[in-house]
Structure formats: structure tokens, C-alpha cells
Design brief:
The complex is a heterodimer of chains A (116) and B (111). Chain A has 116 residues and is mostly beta strands. Helix content of chain A is 0%, strand content 47%. Chain A contains no helices and eleven strands. In chain A, the strands form two sheets. In chain A, strands 2, 4, 5, 6, 9, 10 and 11 form a seven-stranded mixed sheet that branches. In chain A, a hairpin with a 6-residue loop joins strand 7 and strand 8. The radius of gyration of chain A is 13 Å and the shape is globular. Chain B is 0% helix and 55% strand. Chain B contains no helices and eleven strands. In chain B, strands 2, 4, 5, 9, 10 and 11 form a six-stranded mixed sheet that branches. A five-stranded antiparallel sheet of chain B has the order 1-3-8-7-6, with no helix packed on it. The chains are: A mainly beta (116), B mainly beta (111).
Chain lengths: 116, 111
């Protein structure tokens, strides 16, 4: 069975470049989360989608970060004008049904972003 | 800001030893999860606890949710090298879908 997949797995960007990170959730999963994980730390919440609706984007660090899920399945996290502090692993997770009350989140392998 | 503090941060032990990892907060959570993460992979859910005082066992792993639902512990009996990894707790504040992850405990079990 297919789990959550993310691409690319690794991305090296020069400071100032725009990057786009893709997440393919498990088919039929309603909820989709993006997290940022710094080296040696726990994941930090970025944003949450329920189907195509972005219900919470309170964790996005700045207006350079933008996420979308136009058809309620695949999601893209875009970072404009990347900075060195954006270097981290970006994790995507999906769950079914609607998140809350302890539903299992299934995580992808992450995209490791390095900004030089 | 809700924080989940984990202790210890790092733990290196010999195969066969027992260990306990703690996850503490001043906030109440409606549920708490424990994950294990290996290098280059995403976290994998080990257990979810939802009731204060709840104890769950998964082979050699015992998980407990505090009575006040503010803290949790993970106890591993007779650790094995395959237990090596980053252990993360994640709490779900009441009435939300958003999980707050702990700071992580990096465990290394030596053969």
C-alpha cells in the first residue's frame, strides 16, 4: 500500500531562490499537515488542510511561505526568496478522517532543504 | 505558547538495560501520542493515549498518561539496539487538531 510520499527528498537552493515541495498524501485522507523539523528537534506545525480548505496557517514563519492543496489531494509548500534559516526537514502528514481526538497521522519521509 | 519538554535529551545505554523517557507540560492535552523517528524518515506512531492515568503496553514498551493529562512517560524494558532512534511525544490541546511535538529524546542502545 502506498504511504505518504514527498518530493524531492533533498533540495539544495541558493539563498534567494524559490523552492516548491510536494506532498502526495494517502488516497482518501481528508486532513493534511505540514511541519518543519530543525536538526535534532521535534517537528513544528506549519499549516493544516481539511480537503482543499486551509484551516490553519498560523505556523508559517513568514509571508515567504505559502501552501496549497487545490483539489484536496496533492499539496505543495512553496518558499519564496529562501534564507539560510529555512534549512530544515519539511514533513508532510495525512490522516483520515478529520484530525482530532487522537487520529493517527501518517508521515512522509520529508524533504531535506539546504539553503546555501 | 504550549511546550512539551522531554527528558533526557540524549540517552546512551547498554543492551538489556531499562530506561524511562519523560514528557512534561503545564498544559492539558486531550490526547498524547508517542512516535519513533529514524534518520531520513518521518515519525512513526507508536501509541495514542487519551484517558488520564491510562497505561498501554506494546511488547517491551510501556506508556503512561498522567492523571491530569499534562505529562506522559515511556518505559522500555531490556532495551535492544533496534530501539535506537529519536522518540517524540506529541500532545493535542483540547478542542484542536493541532499536535504540539516535544523536544525529542535521542536514544542509542549499544550492543
Amino acid at each position: 500500500g502506498a504511504g505518504v510520499s514527498q518530493s524531492p527528498r533533498y533540495k539544495v537552493a541558493k539563498r534567494g531562490q524559490d523552492v516548491a515541495l510536494r506532498c502526495d498524501p494517502i488516497s482518501g485522507h481528508v486532513s493534511l499537515f505540514w511541519y518543519q523539523q530543525a536538526l535534532g528537534q521535534g517537528p513544528e506545525f506549519l499549516t493544516y488542510f481539511q480537503n482543499e480548505a486551509q484551516l490553519d496557517k498560523s505556523g508559517l514563519p513568514s509571508d515567504r511561505f505559502f501552501a496549497e492543496r487545490p483539489e484536496g489531494s496533492v499539496s505543495t509548500l512553496k518558499i519564496q526568496r529562501t534564507q539560510q534559516e529555512d534549512s530544515a526537514v519539511y514533513l508532510c502528514a495525512s490522516s483520515f478522517p478529520v484530525a482530532g481526538m487522537g487520529e493517527t497521522q501518517y508521515f512522509g519521509p520529508g524533504t531535506r532543504l539546504l539553503v546555501l | 505558547t504550549q511546550l512539551l519538554e522531554q527528558s533526557p535529551q540524549f540517552l546512551s545505554i547498554q543492551e538489556g538495560e531499562n530506561l524511562t523517557v519523560y514528557c512534561n507540560s503545564s498544559s492539558v492535552f486531550s490526547s498524547l501520542q508517542w512516535y519513533r523517528q529514524e534518520p531520513g524518515e518521518g515519525p512513526v506512531l507508536l501509541v495514542t493515549v487519551v484517558t488520564g492515568g491510562e497505561v498501554k503496553k506494546l511488547k517491551r514498551l510501556t506508556f503512561q498518561f498522567g492523571d491530569a493529562r499534562k505529562d506522559s512517560s515511556l518505559h522500555i524494558t531490556a532495551a535492544q539496539p533496534g530501539d535506537t532512534g529519536l522518540y517524540l511525544c506529541a500532545g493535542e490541546p483540547s478542542g484542536t487538531y493541532k499536535y504540539i511535538f516535544g523536544t525529542g529524546t535521542r536514544l542509542k542502545v549499544l550492543a
